[in-house]
Amino acid sequence: MAPADLSVDLFWSPVRGELREQRLTLPAGSTLRDALAASAWFEPDQIATLTAGIWGRIVPLETPLRAQDRVEVYRPLTVDPKEARRQRFQAAGSRIVTRHRPLGRKA
Q: What CA–CA distance (Å, rounded) separates 42 from 71?
């Protein structure tokens, strides 16, 4: 690795329960789009439709990368989180909260 190169880790979960990880060595000044293209996981025309981020924050594909960045590719949501919670509540028939505030008398 030349001194001007940078190393980044790329993470992608194509389906639930599967995690792919790849270490990439890119030239200095590379962008998030360059990292996705270098991975060979995605077709060139598919890259523009992906939602990706660095260290858990969604950023534009033209964002420059820094050494040791964690590049993540996100799947689209399959169900609205609020609707999923409603469905879990209906199935369980009780509240889904781990800690409850003690019930007290109203003043």
A: 14
